[in-house]
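user: can you give me the structure for this one chain? tokens are fine.
assistant: on it. calling the predictor now.
[tool input]
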Amino acid sequence: MDKSTGLICDQTIVLTGPKSKKLYPKALRLVRFKDQESGKVYTFLNNDFMLPALTIPELYKSRWKVELFFRWIKQHLRIKAFYGTSENAVKTQIWIAISAYVLVAIAKKKLELERDLYTLLQILNVTLSRKCRSDKHLPDRPTLPKVAIFTTSCSSSTYDRTLLAESAVTLNRLYIAFNVKLY
């Protein structure tokens, strides 16, 4: 093993515990790797014997970045579940959530609000989900331009079009609520 790459060992093992041996009797690959940046040692169990040993830690590191991205989405963009299953629906929902997040961040800065973004997003979530006549609660203001949402591929499903329309309305409400001009 070339220790300068961070690879400590690449071994074939068999589980020996009574329950684990019964549940997975096949051989496993154990790859131990030391991260040069953090100094931490990681152990990976895998059943892929075809890949080079250094590829295993790289794959897990890439997967961990994806996991961190989705954790950030859940925590900051308040996406708990995806409403559509198509690639376009998922991308659209993520971009709409990012747009709303950035819009609130811009409004927070322009209005010099002291509350953190998470609290502002919670307030907006409650406020925007209340059913009321919007013209009754808003002062007279000039009409703001409608939000146009573009995607790389347009879905013809009614559900995707409805999601886009509802999201555009929500973004327009954000514009009005904070009276922010982005152009």
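assistant: here you go. Helices lie at 18-23, 55-77, 87-110, 117-129, 134-137, 158-178. The chain has six helices and three strands.
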